[in-house]
């Protein structure tokens, strides 16, 4: 499988200028190519192919208006055309129902928070013996190596984020030799807000709430930004302070997700989670808390780490009534308001913890061998025997405008 390894870059002044020039050229090529296809569509002409766009790019570099495109590596310009093809392909696949909904490709702006360029192997980039990253027409850029790469990377993407930080993202191929030894435990996970994760063995992991804890600092930085005149240098400095504050929150959340997901993958042979409708929850009054938790990022980490280390990852359907069903007798009692954290089963009398009961049901719906002893239930009053016994239906598991390259 392919994985990405990210490292912090520290370019000097001239290298930052060269990177800014590269970002701008890649953006202009992308916008010019998009304009060609949009103009062809408006005129009722056939779709302009990638080969035709590449020819027009080569021709435009020989014109006085676009001669400065030759100051950067030609590879990043071609990769910008590939990015446009990918955007169109994703858009068409979404129209056909092959993937989630995607909008049509849009023009890029120099004011975008994220700028990126990509170098492939034929670009001539390499890692020097001194540990620096040599990029064509940019120079040897300092890198903070936090770990070693498992093999020779195929591509490197240089990224500048909203906080003004530079990163190098390497694509590497991993080998199956990283499979972890088999273990016995299997666990179901119920994700929440009061507790970030509740495991079917009864473990509750508190939610760090990184955004909530940083709200005062963020509020102060954003108020300072709103008081600066638009277009002034002080406003640019204030904007960077806000971006860096948000970056610290995002980095802390990502680190927490990495540590927790790695721990769960190492300790359990199989992991089951519920397919949550995060987009829908993000439109409710709990939106800030939902975004602060970052469930989607955490589940994505569990999924790729399970595939990498030879573990089993299962995802049950979002309509499985995990919080409405007793994990002991499997009787469904209906929905309950959020303030109800414990409830008594009317059929078997068990006193159930709402979150742990849901985690046990997640594991059982995925077909994992989870014992009910992990649900922290205690027997309640035994109901009187009925004259006639009945059966309760069991829920079915659901596994889950400038002149550009348009020159004729």
What does this structure look like?
The chain is α+β, with helices and mostly antiparallel strands. Helix content is 37%, strand content 17%. The strands form three sheets. Strands 2-6-7-1-5-4-3 form a seven-stranded antiparallel β-sheet. It has a five-stranded mixed β-sheet with strand order 10-9-8-11-12, sandwiched between helices. It is elongated. Mean pLDDT is 86; it is low at 372-408.
Helix content: 25-40%
Q: How do the strands of the widest beta sheet line up side by side?
A: 2-6-7-1-5-4-3
Based on CA atoms alone, the radius of gyration comes out at 27 Å
Output mean pLDDT. 86
- The total count of helices amounts to 10
Distance between the termini: 43 Å
Roughly what fraction of the amino acids lie in strands? 15-25%
- C-alpha geometry: elongated
Category from helices, strands and their pairing: alpha+beta
Task: Count all strands and give the number.
Answer: 14
- Name the poorly predicted regions: 372-408
Tell me the series of helices and strands, N- to C-terminal: EHHHEEEEEEEEEHHHEHHHEEEH
Biggest sheet character: 7 strands, antiparallel
Short description:
By secondary structure, the protein is an alpha+beta fold. The protein contains 10 helices and 14 strands. It is elongated, with a radius of gyration of 27 Å.
């Amino acid at each position: 499988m392919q994985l990405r390894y990210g490292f912090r870059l520290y370019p000097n002044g001239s290298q930052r200028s060269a990177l800014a020039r590269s970002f701008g050229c890649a953006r202009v090529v992308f916008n010019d190519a998009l304009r060609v296809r949009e103009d062809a569509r408006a005129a009722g002409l056939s779709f302009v192919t990638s080969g035709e766009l590449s020819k027009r790019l080569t021709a435009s570099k020989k014109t006085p208006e676009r001669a400065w495109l030759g100051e950067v590596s030609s590879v990043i310009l071609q990769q910008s055309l590939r990015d446009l093809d990918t955007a169109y392909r994703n858009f068409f696949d979404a129209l056909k129902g092959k993937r989630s909904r995607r909008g049509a490709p849009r023009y890029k702006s120099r004011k975008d928070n994220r700028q990126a360029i990509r170098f492939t192997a034929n670009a001539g980039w390499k890692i020097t013996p001194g540990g620096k990253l040599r990029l064509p027409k940019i120079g040897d850029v300092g890198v903070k190596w936090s770990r070693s790469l498992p093999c020779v990377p195929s591509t490197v993407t240089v990224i500048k984020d909203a906080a003004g930080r530079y990163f190098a993202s390497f694509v590497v191929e991993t080998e199956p030799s990283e499979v972890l030894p088999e273990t016995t435990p299997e666990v179901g996970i119920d994700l929440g807000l009061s507790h970030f994760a509740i495991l079917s063995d009864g473990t509750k992991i508190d939610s760090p709430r990184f955004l909530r804890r940083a709200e005062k600092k963020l509020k102060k930085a954003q108020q300072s930004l709103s008081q600066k005149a638009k277009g002034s240098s002080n406003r640019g400095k204030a904007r960077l302070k806000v971006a860096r504050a948000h970056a610290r929150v995002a980095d802390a959340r990502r680190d927490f997700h990495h540590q927790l997901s790695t721990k769960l993958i190492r300790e359990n042979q199989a992991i089951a989670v519920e397919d949550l409708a995060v987009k829908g929850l993000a439109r409710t009054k709990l939106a800030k808390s939902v975004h602060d938790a970052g469930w989607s990022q955490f589940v994505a980490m569990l999924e790729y780490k399970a595939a990498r280390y030879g573990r089993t990852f299962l995802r049950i359907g979002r309509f499985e009534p995990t919080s409405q069903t007793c994990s002991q007798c499997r009787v469904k009692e209906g929905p309950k308001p959020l303030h109800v954290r414990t409830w008594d089963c009317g059929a078997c009398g068990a006193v159930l913890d709402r979150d742990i009961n849901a985690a046990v049901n997640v594991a059982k719906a995925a077909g994992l061998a989870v014992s009910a002893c992990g649900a922290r239930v205690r027997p309640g009053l035994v109901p009187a025997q009925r004259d006639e016994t009945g059966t309760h239906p069991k829920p079915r598991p659901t596994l889950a405008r400038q002149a550009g390259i348009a020159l004729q």
